[in-house]
Amino acid sequence: MVNISKKSGALKIVVIAAILLTAPVAAGVLIQSQNQSSNQFIYQSLLLGVYFGAEPQNFQYQVELAFPNLVFDHPVGIYHAGDESNRLFVLEQPGVIKVFNNSQNVTSAKIFLDIRDQVVYGGEQGLLGLAFHPNFTDNGYFYVDYTADDDGRTIVARYTINQTDPDQANKTSEQNILEVPQPYSNHNGGQLAFGPDGYLYIALGDGGSGGDPQGNGQNLSTLLGSILRIDVDTATPPSNYSIPPDNPFVGNTEGYKEEIYAYGLRNPWRFSFDNVTGLLWAGDVGQSKWEEIDIIKNGTNYGWNIMEGNHCYLPSSGCNTTGLEPPIWEYGHDVGHSVTGGFVYRGPALPELNGSYIYGDFAYGQIWALEYDGLNPTNNTLLVDTGLLIASFGVDENSELYIVDYRGGIYQLNYSPPTSTEIFNTVFVPVL
Ligand SMILES: [Ca+2]
Ligand SMILES: [Ca+2]
């Protein structure tokens, strides 16, 4: 936290001058862009405006352990089942799903599924994704994405809940939906989610190594480097799924994979649907310079490995960008090293973040709020620099947001009003 009262005399004069010059403008812009008018928010914006020239950081947010008694083994995801049971499910990368009641004072989590004997774990391999069927309450189906222990291929499989114990999955119920050979151990994607259309979306990275040596990102004849969309409620034998009729390459004669929904992706690490707009948001991890946020649309090419973010990658200059969709936001490796896609915030606890896309950096631990509507200038705000290894974000049945720290804890964002000291410094310093 930067506090004006801690600054040296000379710097203090500069800061005060900056305050006098920029505070009203900055505050006005922020208020307009947020379209909010509560006294609290105006006041928060004034604080932001005051500090805009000195420290571009919203110091009022912090993270705290959401379930202080629970520690997980390399967690990479948190989910709810959509069954109004108020349970949360945490994905442990070695191959375990834990379940617990969504209560701050919960003291233990149960093992919901343990497939460690089928999963190869380490680096970017392991149990990487979980999605509950939209009709889970009726059919007990859920889907996982993991790296197989025998050859490192990606498996997307369906499991069924134990009929007599809702906190137990039936391990022998596994039905493989999709298997994808992996040429290298990294860039496996892994996110699964059902869209508002009822179809299952699956993230696959470019296969791995560095720089996409096989050119999988731009190759429509491989499932790698893509977000897939399949219909798991209708099977077209021998597949255990069918192709949605409006998938972009349905019925093509070029040998393109009909499962592909969007492509040109390097390693989409966490995507999510905004449950208000239905938009699909993804973080795509960069190669060596640029991390990016994309809004994923049907049939669209996100550029890898021709481009990394908004920049030519191969070739390194003068690349042909025709037909390539740029990210809606990017940041360089001077800021962070590995984006973790999050969620458009729709929870009740932090209404000032409603509609902002909350995402982070795995390596450096920042959490940002990105405001994007395709019309107005995109606004990216650092909420908090956590020091966590942000493996994932997740939401509960109330759309409240959680942050998964790879070292074991589940965190949530909270907001603390400015202290009286901050009020004094912020409001009265300019008139001294
Ligand atoms: Ca791989
Ligand atoms: Ca891209």
Largest sheet composition: 4 strands, antiparallel
> Could you please say which CATH topology of the largest domain applies here?
Neuraminidase
| Each distinct ligand | calcium ion
| Oligomerization status of the protein chains | single chain
Q: Which term fits the overall shape? A: globular
Radius of gyration: 23 Å
Q: Which CATH architecture of the largest domain would you pick?
A: 6 Propeller
The CATH superfamily of the largest domain is known as TolB, C-terminal domain
SSE pattern: HHEEEEEEHEEEEEEEEEEEEEEEEEEEEH
Trace the largest sheet across and list its strands. 1-26-25-24
The helix tally amounts to 4
Name the CATH class of the largest domain. Answer: Mainly Beta
Q: Proportion of β residues?
A: 25-35%
Tell me the distance between the termini.
22 Å
- The helical percent reads 10-25%
Low-confidence stretches: 1-58, 422-432
Average pLDDT taken over every residue: 87
Give a count of the beta strands, DSSP E runs of length 2 or more. Answer: 26
